[in-house]
Structure formats: structure tokens, C-alpha cells
Amino acid sequence: MHLFRKCPGRCCIYLPAMKEKTKIILKSGKDDAIKRYHPWVFSGAIKKITGQPTEGSPVEVFSNKDEYLGTGLYQDASIAVRIMEFAPQRPENFDNDFWYQKLNEAFQLRRIADLTENEHTNVYRLIHGEGDHLPGLIIDFYNGNLVIQAHAIGIHLHREKIAEGLQKLYGNNLKSIYYKSRETLPGKFSDTNEAEGFLFGNNPGDVVLEYGNKFEIDFIHGQKTGFFIDQRENRKLLTKYAKDKTLLNTFCYSGGFSVYALQAGAKKVESLDSSKKALELAEKNVKLNFSDTSNHSVIHADAIQFMRENREMYDIIILDPPAFAKHSNVRHNAVQGYKRLNAEAIRQISESGLLFTFSCSQVVNMNLFKSTVIAAAIQAGRKVKILHQMTQPADHPVNAFHPEGEYLKGLVLYID
Ligand code: SAH
User: Fold this and answer.
1) pTM above 0.90, yes or no
2) Phi, psi values for residue 169, rounded to 5°
């Protein structure tokens, strides 16, 4: 229904007026971060809300002096608004056009990064939340299949429009769109049938290529969206060093690092994970790439316990654990965990060997991770050189105004 208001000028026609959006007014001084394009409004920064926003509804954000700052999606949580568009842009609503434009901007970035028409790699992240100015939204591309993951209710409510934008963007190249948000949405939204299912097509899995290596992806049962795309460049780096080496790939999931090491001519590769399903995937992927798999084996174990008890030495060890700290209040425990794990690994590396060690905890930054790993080297009593310092690839961009988005840290250590 249109709302009408009287023309304030001399003409007497009636003009349709924009439906008033809920207005969020910030406390004095709380507009600085938003003016610097940080996309989150914390509930504690809000002075007043005019109207009653519903979960996931569009809202406009204003400073204490009534300056318009941006338009976002509301949630009754610590992050109360995720800004989707900053001033002077002021979208009337988040319609199909809005989503298509945003998706296309992100697609163009992947095109520049040589990911969209690459004959050796057909798996990449299309939308990386805040890094693509779409907070709360993750979309991964798997050889024509897209997996959408919503981390915010506003994104969940717009999933059909996002899917329509994706169909327009990929056209005939699109095989399926799977929506997978059961683990990332808050309770009452994650418990419904709408939290997971196909929004287009119904392809439950596919084989993708990453630098020419084949991986089978199970969108429905796999962890996260099905694959850890963020390790692509770090797996590639391993190929420089793996020839003729013995290698232990802990926290291996679907065997990414193992396949690359075998491709590079590793002598022996052991893939370790606490999940049987992950190990099945790792074995499948090794078979998919090599006719002779006799130099690969799997170990079903808790990595931390295994590292504590193992006495075998390896030329290369990979440590890629899940995030030890999800919040800053458990950062200290996480740091202790990283230190113990890295110290054990450093002890088990042969002379002139390498450790590829990672942290994907957002609250542990590179400086802290590096000093933790150095403390582990001191504890292990080995001489250590840092050869490489790694991060996430270009399809996981970091919004410069939201440094929290820089979550993946990695080091390659040379152990004398
Ligand atoms: N390196 C992988 C991604 C790792 S994801 C890749 O390149 O694809 C983290 C993995 O750690 C998951 O597969 C999970 O099952 C496994 N995991 C979690 N806790 C574990 C533990 N305590 N011991 C061994 N594996 C664990």
C-alpha cells in the first residue's frame, strides 16, 4: 500500500512517499566507527529506536546529530545492525536489483583475481561477508554450484532474492544453489526446515578442481560449506617443499594438503582427523587423483593426544586446527592450546624439516600467533627460522575498516 503526502509546493498533485523506515539513533561519539565504514552497530551504541524493528528488518542509522549514516539489517543481539550500504547511498529497500549489484561487484573482484574462468581452479569464495561489504553472508562457488550460508537473520529473510541475483549472475553456468544455515543462524531460525535446502536445482555434490587437483565436495553433509577454500594458496606453497618427504597432515578434513603433497612427489603422507567422515573424504580424494595410493594412510585420532604420544619423526607436519577461540574471553586458553600443540609438533620434526602451522581464530592476531609459536619453539628447545607468513587468499578479502575479518594466519617454520 502506498502512503501519500501532500506536495509541499504550489502544485496540487499527490506524490507517493517512501514508507518510513525504523530509525536507529546512535549515542554521541558512537558514529565514528560507522563513518569509517565499520559495518557493525553494537546494541550498546544505540541511544534511541523510533518504531519497532522486527528481527532482520531494514533500518536506517543516524548520528546523535541526526545525520544519516547508512542502511542495514536489524537483529536483537549484541551486533544490532549490520550496515549493508553507507551514506550517501540510501537504498529504499533490499530488492532484487540491490542484491544483484552487490553480487556482481564481488564477482568482478574474483574475475580480477583470475578465479572465474580458470581452467585449473573452479572453486572459490564469491562472498566473504564483511570483506565484501555484505556482513553476515557467505557464498562459495563449487564448479557451478553455490552454497549460501547466512550468519544473520536479515540475510536469511532475503535468501530468495539473493538466489535470484545469483541466477541472473551465473545464467546457464549455474547447476544448483544450496542454502546451508542451520549451524549459523540463531535458535528459532535454525530449527526450521527453511534453514537448509536447495533454492535452485538439486545437485548434492560435485567434483571441483583446485590448481588441477580434484576434490569431491558434499554440500549437504560436509563441514562448513563443504570445503576449506581459504587454504588454496597455502596448499600450493606446500608443493614447493614436499618432494621425497614424509609428511603428517593433522586436522586434515578432506585431505587438501595431503593431495597437494602427493602431487608434488611426497614419499609418505599420513592424514589425521578426529572425524571418520573427514577421513573417508580424504581417502576418496586421494583415490580420485592417484591410481597408486600405497604411500597414503589415515589416522583416526585426537590430534592433541596423538601428538603427545607419538614418537615418530616427520620431515613436514601440517597443523591446521579449528578455531580454538571463538571469543576474546577464551583467548588465553586458546593461546595455551596453540603453544602445547606447536611445541609437540616442533619436537617431532626431523632435522632440516618444516612445520606448516595455522590459526583461524579471529581473536588471535598474527603478532600473538607468532609469539605463541616462538614460545613453543623455545619450549621444544629447537632452533627455528620463519620462512613464510601466510594469510587468507584474495577471494576472502579483508575490509580494511573491519580488521577482525583477517582471520587466517599461517607460518612455515624451518626447524634446524
Ligand atoms: N586442513 C583442512 C581443514 C581443517 S578443518 C583442509 O585443508 O581442508 C579442521 C579439521 O579438524 C576438521 O576436519 C575437524 O574434523 C578436525 N578436528 C577438530 N578437532 C580435532 C581434534 N581434536 N583432533 C583431530 N582433528 C580434529
Assistant:
1) yes
2) -70, -45
CA of 341 to the centre of ligand 1 (A): 13
Cβ atoms of 379 and 339 within 8 Å: the answer is: yes
Q: Is 80 exceeded by the pLDDT of residue 188?
A: yes
DSSP 88: T
Within 6 A (CB) of ligand 1 lie 223, 228, 231, 251-254, 256-257, 273-275, 278, 302-304, 320, 322
Look at residue 373 in the predicted model and tell me its pLDDT: 98
What is the number of the ligand 1 atom nearest to the C-alpha of 358? 1
In total, the chain counts a number of residues equal to 416
Q: Which fold has domain 17-86?
A: 2.30.130
- Ligand 1 pocket test, pick from 274, 299, 408 with the greatest ligand atom count within 8 Å of Cβ, gives 274
Residues of the chain with CATH 2.30.130.10: 17-86
One of 3.40.630.30, 3.30.750.80, 2.60.120.890, 2.60.40.10 is the CATH number of 96-207, namely: 3.30.750.80
Instruction: Kindly give the number of the ligand 1 atom that is closest to the alpha carbon of 235.
Output: 7
pLDDT of residue 9: 40
Dig out the grid coordinates for 274 from the structure: 578426529
Q: What is the DSSP letter of 20?
A: P
- Delimiting residues of CATH 3.30.750.80 domain(s) in the chain: 96-207
Q: Phi/psi of residue 146, each to 5°?
A: -115, 140
What's the pLDDT tens digit per position in 210-256? 999 999 999 999 999 999 999 999 999 999 999 999 999 999 999 99
Which fold does the domain 228-415 belong to in CATH?
Rossmann fold (3.40.50)
Residue nearest to atom 15 of ligand 1 (CA): 275
